[in-house]
Amino acid sequence: MRKLRINKNMHAKKAAALANAVTGEGTIITALENIVSVAGDSELDEETLSAVSGQFAMLEERLSLTRMQALVVAMLIDSGRFLDTHEMARYLGIRNIRMLTYMNEIDQLLQRRIIRYKRTNFDKGYLIRREALDAYLADKEYAPQPRKGISMSDFVDASNELIDDYIDDEVSHEELEENICELVRNNSSLLICKKMENLNANEMILFLFCLCKYVYEGDLNVIGLEYGRLFEKGALASLQRNILRRTGPLFTEKLLGDAFSQDFASRETVSISEEVRTFVEKEMDISWKNADLSYMKDLLVAGDIVHKDMFYNAEERVSIDKLCEMLSQENFENIQQRLKECGMRSGFACLFYGAPGTGKTETVLQLARLTGRSIMQVNIAGIKDKYVGESEKNIRAIFRRYRTCCDNSELKPILLFNEADAIISKRSADVSRAVDKMENAMQNIILEEMEKLDGILIATTNLTANMDKAFERRFIYKIEFHKPEAVVKERIWMSMIGDLAPEIANRLASEFDLSGGQIENVTRKQFVDQILYGEEPTLTKLREYCNQECIKNTENAWNHSRIGF
C-alpha cells in the first residue's frame, strides 16, 4: 500500500507530545491512524472506507470534521510535513482534478486554523498546525481562542508568530495584514496597541517587526535589508519615504526613532524608540538580557595571549602594521568618530586569507595582544543546528553577545570567525533543500550584521575562490598571506631553533618552500628527538623532516583568487 513519507527530523517538542499521546480505542489519534491506514489507494471507494465509518462518525461528532476533512487531517499528521493536493491525490489513488473539488473543505480547515499552507512555485502545501496536533494527541478538541485581552508578553509572542508565518511563506501578505490588524484591535487596552491606533497595516507590521527583533534578539537597529523582505515594492517605497524623512505616525507617535547611538550611515536604518524600549523592559522579562549577563564567558583576554615573534613578507608587513596602528585605542576611537561625523559606517570587517600555516590566526592573536583587545572567537561548527530556525537564532545570538561585549568593555573586542570558509561561500541559487535554505538564511543574517557592525570583525580563510561577492564587498581590509620568501624563512628557522647554524638555516630556506606552520612542525619533531635521544639538529635530519612536510602539504591543495588589500 502507498505510504506517505515521514519527516524524520521531528522537533523535540513534537516527540515529547507523541510520547505522552493518549491512544487506544475511541481516541482521536487512533481514529485518525485507522482512517489513514485504510484510505491509501482506496480511490475514495465507499465500500473500502466503510471499514472506518465509525471513526469518521466519531470525528464528526467530537471535532466537527467532514469525512474529507478527517482524511486531510489524518494524511497531514501521518506525513509530518507539507503536502500539496497532488500528493494527497496520489496517496488516495485519485486524480488531482478530483481532489480539487474538495478545496472548499480544505479552505474551511484553514479558516478554523487547524491547518496552514505554504506557497510553492506551482501550488500550495498544507501542514497540520502545532496547536491542533497537540490537542489531538491529548485526545481533546482543538478550538483556537481569539487572541483577545492578552498580556504584553503574549501580544509580542503572537506578533512574532504571525510575522514568522509570512516570512516562511505560510500565509499571504493580505492574511498577514488582516491578522495583525485583528490582533491589535482585539488588544486595544494594551498601551502599545493604543499608540498604534493611527497606523496602517504595513506600518503596524514594520513596528512589530522592530519590536520583536529587540525582544527576542536584543537588536535595536533594523536595516532596510532586514525589513524590506516584509513588503512588496509599492508598500515598501511608501514606507521608506516616511522613514527617510522621519515623518508619519511611526515617528510622530514615537514608536520608531533613529538608529541606536547614531552609529549607522543609512537613513533607512531604524530602531524602536527610547520610550518604547523603556516601556517594554519594564513590562516584560526579556530572556536575552539575562542570558547576556555572561557576556565575558570564553573571551580571550589580551593579557593572556602569549607573545610570539611573527615574520612576514614585506608587503604583508606593511598591511599588518597599518592595521595594528589603526586598532590602537587612540586611533580607532578617533577614526570611528570621524567616520560617524561624515555619515559613514564605523565598523571594520577584515579578511585574512591565504595558504594554511601562513600565520593568519596567530596574527589575529598578536594584534589583539598589541592593541589590548580581547577576542571573542566563534565556534562555527557549533552554530549549525538540525532544527529549523535554530542556526539562525545562534548567529543572531553571537552578534548580540558581541554588542554586549562592546558595550561593557573599555576597548571594543575583536570578533573572530576562524576558518570561515563554510559561512562566506557563495549562496545557493537552488534552495529546494532545507539545508540550502538554512545556509542562505545564516549568510544573509551575517551580511546584515556586517552592515550594522560597530566594532571589529576578522575572518580567516584558506579559500577565496568560492567566496560570495556580497561578503567580499563588506570586508574593508583584505590581507593575503603568502608563504614566506627565502629571507623570511631563514629568520623563522633561526628563531625556532636558536642554536641552528646560519648556513643550515640558509640552505633549508632556499631548498624548501614551506610555510611558517610547516617549519614549526619540523622544529617540533627535531625538539622531540633532542629530548628522547639527545640529538642535535643536523642538516640531514632536518631535510628528512622537510621532505615529509612537502609530501603532506602540496601547493595544489590550496587554490585561491586574489582579492587585494
Present the secondary structure layout.
Elements: H1 12-19, H2 28-39, H3 46-49, H4 53-63, H5 67-79, H6 85-92, H7 96-99, H8 103-111, E1 115-119, E2 124-128, H9 130-137, H10 152-167, H11 173-186, H12 191-194, H13 201-217, E3 221-222, H14 224-227, H15 233-245, H16 249-252, E4 256-257, E5 270-272, H17 274-283, H18 287-291, H19 314-327, H20 329-341, E6 348-354, H21 360-371, E7 375-378, H22 380-383, H23 390-407, E8 414-417, H24 421-424, H25 434-452, E9 456-461, H26 469-474, E10 477-481, H27 486-496, H28 502-511, H29 516-533, H30 539-552
Parallel strand pairs: 6-9, 6-10, 7-8, 8-9
Antiparallel strand pairs: 1-2, 3-5, 4-5
Helix pairs in contact: 2-4, 2-5, 10-11, 10-13, 11-13, 19-21, 23-25, 27-28, 27-29, 29-30
Molecular structure report:
The chain has 565 residues and is an alpha/beta fold. The protein is built from 30 helices and 10 strands. The protein has helices spanning 12-19, 28-39, 46-49, 53-63, 67-79, 85-92, 96-99, 103-111, 130-137, 152-167, 173-186, 191-194, 201-217, 224-227, 233-245, 249-252, 274-283, 287-291, 314-327, 329-341, 360-371, 380-383, 390-407, 421-424, 434-452, 469-474, 486-496, 502-511, 516-533, 539-552; strands at residues 115-119, 124-128, 221-222, 256-257, 270-272, 348-354, 375-378, 414-417, 456-461, 477-481. The chain has a 5-stranded parallel sheet. Strand 1 (115-119) and strand 2 (124-128) form a beta hairpin. Helix 2 crosses helix 4 (53-63) and helix 10 (152-167) runs antiparallel to helix 11 (173-186). The chain is globular, with a radius of gyration of 30 Å. The termini are far apart. Mean pLDDT is 83; it is low at 1-18, 261-265 and 553-565.
